[in-house]
Structures are given as structure tokens and as C-alpha cells.
From TrEMBL:
PANTHER family: ACYL-COA N-ACYLTRANSFERASES (NAT) SUPERFAMILY PROTEIN (PTHR47443), GCN5-RELATED N-ACETYLTRANSFERASE 4, CHLOROPLASTIC (PTHR47443:SF3). GO terms for molecular function: N-acetyltransferase activity. It comes from Vigna mungo (Black gram). One of its GO terms (cellular component) is chloroplast. It holds the Pfam family Acetyltransf_1. This is N-acetyltransferase domain-containing protein.
Amino acid sequence: MYNLPCCRTGIAYISNVAVRENFRRKGIATKLIEKAESHARSWNCGAIALHCDMENRLATMFYKGQGYKCVIVPEGAKWPQPMTSTDMRFNFMMKLLKNSPPST
């Protein structure tokens, strides 16, 4: 499952990627991310971003393996913020997208 709102200012945002525990390690998350990136490309977005729980090392490693990098959000920037408890900390991760959609 994922939510991908409309691309604004050339950057799409992914939220709420989740795969049920007994279905993990089967390539489902990779397919979800590929689909989200394909949508972003079709909207002519140049980049795609997400927040990842800093404590979830496996998710962080997964996104890095997909080409996402941790970036520092400039002070005053208006990025979506995860709706969760105030004590959780997140990495803001972003990936630049190639111009053409991948062939399927």
C-alpha cells in the first residue's frame, strides 16, 4: 500500500508504504516504489521524496538500495510532515528521477 499525492513543484511525495510481515522479502515493496516512481515520471516530476523512521534501519537500507538519499530540509521549507507522535524522528529521503518512464 502507498499513497502518492499529485506532484507539486516537480517533486512527488510517497507516504505510508507498508507490506504485511508475512509477505515481506518477496519484492512487493520494490514493486510499490517502482510504481510510485513511474507515476511521478508520468507527471513530469524530477524527483520523489519520503520520510523514513530513523529507528527502522531495514527500511532505511531498503530505500538507500532503491537509490534514495538522506537530505537535510532547509529551514522554513514547507514539506509534508509525518502525522505521528512527537518523539519519533525521521530521515527525509529523496531520489532524482530519470526523464523517461521505465519500460514494462
